[in-house]
Amino acid sequence: MKYIQTEQSISIPEGVTVAIKARVIKVTGPRGTLVKNLKHIDVTFTKVDKNLIKVTVHNGDRKHVAALRTVKSLVDNLITGVTKGYKYKMRYVYAHFPINVNVVEKEGQKFIEIRNFLGDKKVRLVPVRKGVTIEFSTTVKDEMVLSGNSVEDVSQNAADVQQICRVRNKDIRKFLDGIYVSAKGNIVEDL
């Protein structure tokens, strides 16, 4: 079944500007600028006024209309990123061998260096994505905080760290060691 016309509306808060040219969205806010390329999704953007954008699909089938909500969520995430930012907290879990985590710089790029995971001599390196900052908590033991404007970069960096610390060739019900996301939120907390 074809849907003749389906719309979603995106409201833009004060202090944020959204520029759309050929389905490349550039969102500028108090925390910086984010750019997202949506040329692969066939939708129409209409700027109603400076505080409202309508996203429309003409003659779309069910999956094409479902992509409309995805586009709305992606733009909402960009707006949240430039106003509040994103913060992921990760905790180190170990039973015996304490995990050592540092941020090192090699050949001009930053890496998260993980040592002594399950007593391994192997040093695990995870590249830090552009725009992501890593801090180690001073109040909570064995906690790392990843923060940045782009939810995709911050969450992917957290996923990379968690994936590189998977336990292999052992019973994962017994060996629960690893680095896991303990909390997700915004840098600028709502009052």
From TrEMBL:
<dbReference type="InterPro" id="IPR036789">
    <property type="entry name" value="Ribosomal_uL6-like_a/b-dom_sf"/>
</dbReference>
<dbReference type="GO" id="GO:0019843">
    <property type="term" value="F:rRNA binding"/>
</dbReference>
<dbReference type="InterPro" id="IPR020040">
    <property type="entry name" value="Ribosomal_uL6_a/b-dom"/>
</dbReference>
<dbReference type="GO" id="GO:0002181">
    <property type="term" value="P:cytoplasmic translation"/>
</dbReference>
<dbReference type="InterPro" id="IPR000702">
    <property type="entry name" value="Ribosomal_uL6-like"/>
</dbReference>
<feature type="domain" description="Large ribosomal subunit protein uL6 alpha-beta">
    <location>
        <begin position="12"/>
        <end position="85"/>
    </location>
</feature>
<comment type="similarity">
    <text>Belongs to the universal ribosomal protein uL6 family.</text>
</comment>
<keyword id="KW-0689">Ribosomal protein</keyword>
<keyword id="KW-0687">Ribonucleoprotein</keyword>
<dbReference type="GO" id="GO:0003735">
    <property type="term" value="F:structural constituent of ribosome"/>
</dbReference>
<dbReference type="Pfam" id="PF00347">
    <property type="entry name" value="Ribosomal_L6"/>
</dbReference>
<feature type="domain" description="Large ribosomal subunit protein uL6 alpha-beta">
    <location>
        <begin position="97"/>
        <end position="178"/>
    </location>
</feature>
<dbReference type="GO" id="GO:0022625">
    <property type="term" value="C:cytosolic large ribosomal subunit"/>
</dbReference>
<dbReference type="InterPro" id="IPR002359">
    <property type="entry name" value="Ribosomal_uL6_CS2"/>
</dbReference>
<protein>
    <recommendedName>
        <fullName>L8</fullName>
    </recommendedName>
</protein>
